[in-house]
Task: structure prediction
Amino acid sequence: MSTYTREALFQMLEAVKKPDEQAMAASRKHWDNIAKPIYGLGLMEDMIVKIAGIQGKEQVVLDKKAVIVMCSDNGVVAEGVTQTDSHVTAVVTENFARGIASVNRMAAVAGAEVLPVDIGVAEDLTEPGVRSCKIAYGTRNLAKEPAMSEEQAVRAILTGIRLVEECREKGYDLLATGEMGIGNTTTSSAMASVLLNLPVESVTGKGAGLSADGIRHKVQVIEAAIRLQKPDRNDPLSVLAGLGGFDLAGMTGVFLGGALYHVPVVIDGIISSVAALTAARLCPTAVGYMLASHMSKEPASVMIMKELGLEPVIHGKLALGEGTGAVMLFPLLEMAYQVYLENSTFENIQIEAYEHFEQEDVL
Result:
C-alpha cells in the first residue's frame, strides 16, 4: 500500500504547532529595550520576533542559511505559453550546481548555500551537486489532463518536507525557497485563479517576458484547463495535482516542513507564493513559519500576500525567480539581527526608555 496518500500527509500535519508565544513576547520586549525609537526597524523587527517564536527562544540564531531550489518541467509548455523550450530548465538546474546562476552570486554575498533539487526535470542530469528527487520527467499537459496524480503530488510535498528535516539535522537556521521550471508562471497563475476564486486574466502576467498576444494566449490556455478539470478550490491538494507542477508541490512541502521542524522559510516570487498559499490551505498554522521577502511583478502577488496576512519588505519589481528575491532578504535580516544582538539597552546607557503610546501591528 502506498504511503503517498492524502491521509498520510494530513496525519503528519497534525503535529504542527503554533510558534512559541512566550519567546515572541520576550523578543518584542528585548527590541523595545534597545536604545533606539520603538519599532524603529519596522518590519525587520517583526521578522526577528517571528523567528524567535519559530525557534522557540529569545536569542535567535541565523548562522547557517540556504535556498532550496526546486527544479521541474511542465507539460503545458506544449501549448506555446513560453518563449523558450523545456531544455532551459535542465541547463539552468546544472548551472545552480556549478555555482554560476544569478542566485548563486547573490547567495554567496549573503553567506548562504544553494541546494538545487531535480524534482521533475524532463532530462537526466549528471552535474554533481544536483540532488536527485525526480518524481517524473516533467508533469503532463494540464490543458489536456491533470498535471500529476494525487499520489505524485503528495510524494513531491513529502520530498520538500524531508529536505527541511535534513536541513534542520545539518544545523540550518533559515531557509529560502527557489524554483526553476519553464512554464511555471502558467501553473502558478492557474492555481492562483482557482485558490483565490478570481478571473484568470486578473492573476496572470507576462512571466519571463511574453508579449500582449502571448499573455492573452496564456490566459486562454489556463481558462480552458480550468473548464476541463473543474477543480474544487476547497480541496487544495486536488488543485495542486490538477494544475500545478512538481516544483510547486516540492516548495509547498518546504513550507510545511518549516512548520513541522521549526525552521523559518522565506517566500520568493509568484511561484513560491502560490506554494506558500497552498501550504497555508493545507495547514493554516504553517503561515506562522513563513517570512515574505518581496512583492513580485506578477499580478497575483499582492492578492496572495493579503490572503496570507504577510507584508514583504522589498518592492523592487523583481521577476527573476530562482530564489533571488528570498535570498535578498538574508542580508537585511542579518543587519537587523546584529542590532538585536549587539546594541545597548536604555538601561546600559542610563537614559529613559521610549514609551508605547499605541499598539503596533506585528507579524
